[in-house]
Amino acid sequence: MDSQSLKKFKLFSTLQPDTLDALAQRAFQRKIQAGHNLVIEGLAAEACYFILSGHLRVSRMNRDGRIQILARFGPGAPVNVISLLKDKRINHASVESLSPATILVISANDFDYLLKNHPDFSSALLRVFANRMAKLTDLAADLSLYTVRSRLAQFLIKLADQPGSASGWTQDEIAAHIGTVRDVVGRLLREFESQGLIDRDHQKIILLNRQGLKDEAQKYDV
Amino acid sequence: MELKAQPIINLQGCTKCGLCVSGCPENALEMTDRGPRLRQPIRCSYCTDCEALCPTGAIRTPLIVTWGSNY
Question: Residue B5: its pLDDT value, please?
Fold first, then answer.
């Protein structure tokens, strides 16, 4: 991929021409299918990736196989960078493709080179991390402060308010994102439906009562 | 009649266990040599049972969340 194409992505838009050239020379493109396990938690971290097209999901799994989805990322987002920055280069979380995707692969050695020789590359990554840190702090607060019912109401409102990300969430994925299991999500959706807060129409979950859902979303775990 | 969204079946991840076919309340699925397919797509109510039953996660029924017109 040439440096001008890279510059179209927000993350790379502030990079100096020589940094873009170095990135273009060292990184290579790879196409992956939907459902591909790009990064497996606990294995040696060999590379980081930048999404050129498609969507990836980052998750962690406990010993019982229960999954917590940490984030979903689309074009322009870096993934598995933290794993390369840690002392022990072990994959910190798993990354799976939700759709066919094209990614830019940067090996650990090339990543080290870019960090060391191109400070603007480091600065761009720092800005990304600041935003992600804020989101993870919010997620940690939500998981500890609110009930599952509240977290589901919050999540439904968030999805509906962001039409670009409103499609493609299965009940399993919703459950993993809000820290519960599928059966609970199904039961709560039925309860919301019986309360007149939402309606179901085939693939659609239609939110009917913003204030009612907001009230549900504000209920603290006591 | 308009054909609505249908479950997404990833045949590569399918073990042909048949749970989705036997568990479909609308009898809309059938098993083929390659794996399950919607025999009668029009009958699929998108109940998401097939996704819940699939032990390998090979069936996805993604949901779209949207505001109603009079929220």
Answer: 87
